Amino acid sequence: MKSQNRTGLDEEGRRRLDEMVQNRVDALAADAKTQNARAPVPPSPDGVMDFQNLAGYRELKLQRSMAAIVGLDNPYFRLHETAAGATTIIGGRQFINYSSYDYLGLNHHPEVREAAHAAVDAFGTSASASRLVAGERPGHRALEGALAQHYGQEDCVVFVSGHATNVSTIGAILGPKDLVVHESLAHNSILAGATLSRAERRSFPHRDFIALDLLLTSIRRRFERVLIVVEGLYSMDGDVPDLPMLVEIKRRHNAWLMVDDAHGLGVLGPKGYGLFDHSGTDPRDVDIWMGTLSKTLAGCGGFIAGPTALVEYLKCMSGGFVYSVGLSPPLAAAASAALAIVHREPGRVDRLRRVSRLFFDAAKTRGWNTGTSAGFAIIPIMAGNSVFAVALSQGLFERGINVQPIIHPAVPERAARLRFFLTSEHRAEQIDETIQAIEEAMKEVAANPSMQSIPGFPQGGPA
Ligand SMILES: Cc1ncc(COP(=O)(O)O)c(C=O)c1O
Q1: 20 to 30 A Cα–Cα from 387, which one of 178, 238, 328, 348?
Q2: Residue 461 has what pLDDT?
Q3: What is the residue with the minimal CA distance to atom 16 of ligand 1?
């Protein structure tokens, strides 16, 4: 029998209490050190407090003026006048659209809309405060139950934003004695979570899991907990990690494996269930499944599916859940309805696969550089630098195609690209029209004298 003291704590309890106290002392000491390091602040140089002089803002203005010199419009923040899917309307004109994450066309689905309307009627538009204090709505529990079941996990918790899900989860489960390891191209939310946690952060080259294994072999012993984070379908490149290999590595090094399946759900695998479906892996081999409601699930928000202890912990300890409003009832209802359709209508996933393949093969046949894309819904076409990517996007816009350029700092400058998101609602004729338009736009941009002095065109290197 374990020994107990007067407060009823056993040895393990006392050890944990000591650890908590020590962590608190360490945190206070670290704060004090930071305060001291900050102490006497010299007077600010002229203009430093002006928002216009923020470094990022100056870079933004420089990019805009360069674009204006070569006659390019701003391709971002366009105003859509309809629910954007395979097509959209901008400025009264219809476009074939490749800028929507609505992979299975569920944002328009009558059942999804109906579910959202019914939830508004019953519970209003807002959960009005944190679920901890304002309580829950039936839609929260229904959605969490369905997602937990989908990923074969004990439980699930939904957050109001996918980005906040990663930040709050990684930030809450790791501390200064821990390590987070991620790919070089990891989503910003993963990096922000790692920074918040104060764990040591290391990256390995994109999909180079041998490098991951070597890294952990050399440094694992220096840390208490280790978290490996990967994405299910990489949002910038459209390629897929080797899940069975990752499971082996995480076991070998006694690490947690977290998969951000934001773009995998609805897209990957014969049934579109996500990365585990694609790899034929038991989803329970992954410790933490993260996903967003904003893509296939036609809503807004994020989720973590995993063991009960993790979910209970996050519901009490992660800032993005405890100190933020609960998911709005119509969004929870819409996501549940969308998930039910994913399960019921596998034909949507087949259609998405077919149109994606059509696009991918047509691009490859023409020798275009699609980077490392596997041809599932996300297909980049490399432009070689940011100006060309924006110019190509504009050339396509003029031809009735809406596709966003992805430029530095979202990707390295030489990896600037157009990124095409396919949906199950795209038709073969639209793909043909688009491929032809890309061909024309590439020729037009290449022939533009003001572009020719910029190195790197037309295809650049791989991402
Ligand atoms: C891989 C990945 N994780 C997380 C997020 C954040 O999700 P959300 O946009 O739903 O906040 C995104 C957003 O696109 C993403 O691509």
Answers
A1: 238
A2: 37
A3: 235
